[in-house]
Amino acid sequence: MSDEEPNMSTGRKTTLSENTLFGMGNPLLDISAVVDKDFLDKFGLKPNDQILAEDKHKALFEEIVKRNKVEYHAGGSTQNSVKIAQWMIQKPHKVATFFGCIGTDHFGEILKKKAEEAHVDAHYYEQNVEPTGTCAACITGDNRSLVANLAAANCYKKEKHLDLDSNWELVKKAKVYYIAGFFLTVSPESILKVAKHASDNNKIFCMNLSAPFISQFFKEPLMMIMPYVDILFGNETTDDIAEIAKKTQNLPKENTKRQRVVVFTQGKDDTVATVGEKVIMFPVLDIDQNAIVDTNGAGDAFVGGFLSALVQEHALEECIRAGHYAANVIIRRVGCTFPEKPDFH
């Protein structure tokens, strides 16, 4: 006899319609290569970090592509998460929608093709001023240092894309919304429009603190969006998780029909969730350290797995279980890639 509640097993058969899950963010092409400590030191990188590229990193992109084993993967945090959610759901296709900005170039074509292969309904705003954004994933052991050159991703324009009737209709079709904190640097006004729509219609709006620099340097837009956030994700790069979780719970909230949930992953340590005053710990799946190929995308995968259960209206612990499963699959592979089908029951 399974220890799942009976409604969980029947819950799996929920028929989902297209565009139930909406994501918006920075579509990037990941360029990943194994590097050494000298490479990190040369460009002043921490082994495990996520930063935006500055002028001093220009040479990094030129050098990393010359490494002997370079891999190119469709990336961008939110785009990764909605892809994984779609992969976990399998059918119908196009349950997940994605908006973001790319360039009219070869890298942009790759991202379009990869989104299509993943059965995500991607609607990109395409412009030709900036090239498609890239992210250098500098891998050392089981650490990854990410340097994002947003380029085109930074050119997303609310009035030229999100506000168009045909696009806004897709937003309205969704029941669950997810935007990584990274998009706060690009278009806070787009996030606010989506967040308000979710709140006004009692739908679920999720956000991710993403990387330390977001809460450090983009505090103002983050605090502007926070009253609309139903589920907040974070990871181990965030200091003093319990404290942040508590503080976040006490921030004002527009839609009082839903209690805010805060979910923090901590790599191989327990995932922490707070619901109101309650703090719950969820152990992750055991994995042999030697089986870990690349932790890049583990956080995105967790969110993707979580969202796949959330759109099917599953309970919090089931959402976390799905998140742990997805992350466990992703870290055994290079980049945020996955086998043909999930084996999740």
Relevant terms:
single chain, 345 residues, alpha/beta, UDP-N-acetylmuramoyl-L-alanine:D-glutamate ligase, five-stranded mixed β-sheet, 35% helix, disordered N terminus, kinase, Adenokinase, ATP-binding, nucleotide-binding
SSE topology sketch:
Layout: H1 6-11, E1 21-24, E2 28-34, H2 37-42, E3 49-52, H3 58-64, E4 71-75, H4 77-89, E5 96-103, H5 106-117, E6 121-127, E7 133-140, E8 143-149, H6 158-162, H7 165-173, E9 176-180, H8 188-200, E10 204-208, H9 212-217, H10 219-225, E11 231-234, H11 241-250, E12 261-266, E13 269-275, E14 278-282, H12 298-310, H13 316-330
Parallel strand pairs: 1-5, 1-9, 2-7, 3-8, 5-6, 9-10, 10-11, 11-12
Antiparallel strand pairs: 2-4, 7-8, 12-13, 13-14
